[in-house]
Amino acid sequence: MPLKRLTVTAVRNLHPVTLHPSPRINIISGANGSGKTSLLEAIHILGLARSFRSTRLQPVIQHGQDACTVFAELVLSNGLACSIGITRGKQADYQIRIDGQTVRSTAQLAETLPLQLINPDSFRLLEGAPKQRRQYLDWGVFHVEHQFLPVWQRLQKSLKQRNSLLRRGRIQRSMLVPWETELVSAGERIDDFRRSYLLRLKPVFEEILARLLPLDDLTLSYYRGWDKERGLAQVLDDQFERDSQLGYTQSGPQRADLRLRVKGMNAVDILSRGQQKLVVCALKIAQGYLLRQLGASQESVFLVDDLPSELDERHRRALCSLLEDLQCQVFISCVDDQQMQDCWKNDTPLSMFHVEHGRIVQTE
Ligand SMILES: Nc1ncnc2c1ncn2[C@@H]1O[C@H](COP(=O)(O)OP(=O)(O)OP(=O)(O)O)[C@@H](O)[C@H]1O
Ligand SMILES: [Mg+2]
To answer: Which atom of ligand 1 is closest in space to residue 62's alpha carbon?
Structure first.
């Protein structure tokens, strides 16, 4: 579901610009500090109402300006056109519009524009806390399972209530019952969603990884967040005393994780930086392929910041070929566009953009 027209105003050092990106591959080149990542950041804000560089949006607003705006016209998978826009002011106020209507939930934005980001921080998917991997998994579930969001919201609410009661100290076991009933019902459904999504993702991931680098002994497994042998209700019951002492719920779907291992050891402790980058790329690209296979309502848009770094020519080409076969819209930034030039088939729609001191010019 490509961006057909993109307008960016007052984002970091970028001059106001309207671009007509290719529905497939878009290469953004330029010197360090020219504004390449800022352009990807602008698209990210459009899809998720937040940056991938700072937790707050304030630093993204161009110095001396009161607000930044990103606006795009999209072509939906059903062929219809749609417009989305986001304006973020200095007072933490933001306005999201879809087809001219103000919307309150960023979930609607994410649903309209499923974004996948691959950047140097993506390594955190392997080395970081389980939360990163849960978010990765839930991104996919969210886009293929429409019931996911309401059930996930029920889970968050019941968990918050249970934890807040636990923190109060001496409480009656019975006070927790209504929240636990809700937690168990939502938690087990979330687990089902995650498990069946992963079952479909795994073979796609393995196939993609094999095209990028042969790592036969890499395994991807799912930990649901609580004991395999016992139901969630039983676990909550058994751990009540301990949970009360700790003031929070130790086990449950809020602890789920994906485990990547090579020869039984943590992949992150074994693989080189380049190999880790390729594994992360395979994980993210696999989600794009799966979404397509499952006929999700929208196709993903990929943002790949600094694609060539840490990859040799063979792996760079293998990655480009995967992104190309994905048939999604891809925005790739790089310092030197020479490295990215002859990686594509002749009939792949390709646009090249060059950035200089915040000014973006289409060169091809
Ligand atoms: N709020 C802001 N207003 C104006 N300029 C900003 C703002 N925030 C950052 N900048 C500047 O924007 C420029 C573009 O940064 P960006 O990270 O997009 O560059 P880049 O092309 O990705 O560079 P690199 O190749 O080093 O990754 C930097 O020079 C930075 O100092
Ligand atoms: Mg950059």
So the answer is: 3
**Nearest atom of ligand 1 to the alpha carbon of 30:** 21
CA of 201 to the centre of ligand 1 (A): 36
119 belongs to a structural domain: no
Among residues 93, 36, 103, the alpha carbon closest in space to that of 69 is found at: 93
Kindly provide the b/e burial profile for residues 301-318, where b requires at least 16 CB atoms within 10 angstroms of the residue's own CB.
Answer: bbbbbbbbebbeeebbeb
Dist. CA 32 → ligand 1 center (Å): 8
- CA pair distance 10, 69, nearest whole angstrom: 7
Both 75 and 109 in a single domain?
yes
User: Can you tell me the distance from the alpha carbon of 266 to that of 262, in angstroms, rounded to the nearest whole number?
Assistant: 6
Does 289 share its domain with 332?
no
Sites in the chain below the pLDDT cut of 50? none
Instruction: Kindly report the CATH number assigned to the domain that includes residue 227.
Output: 1.20.1050.90
pLDDT tens for 33-88 read 999 999 999 999 999 999 999 888 889 999 999 999 999 999 987 888 999 999 99
Q: Which residue has the tokens 């219809």?
A: 80
Residue with tokens 């943002």: 303
pLDDT tens sequence across 208-252:
999 999 888 999 999 999 999 999 999 999 999 999 999 999 999
- Give residue 60 CA to ligand 2 midpoint distance, Å: 14
Residues in binding site for ATP: 30-37
Buried b (16+ CB within 10 A) or exposed e, 269-280: ebbeeebbbbbb
CA of 60 to the centre of ligand 1 (A): 9
Within 6 A (CB) of ligand 1 lie 12-13, 30, 32-38, 59, 61-63, 335
Written as six digits, the tokens of 245 are 């002492």
CATH of residue 40: 3.40.50.300
Residues in the annotated binding site: 30-37
Which tokens belong to 270? 């074994």
Paired strand residues for 98: 84, 101
Range of the domain at 149: 129-296
Residues 144 and 298: their CA atoms lie apart, in Å, by 10
What is the residue type of 301?
V
Closest residue CA from atom 29 of ligand 1: 33
Q: Which ligand 1 atom minimizes the distance to the CA of 53?
A: 17
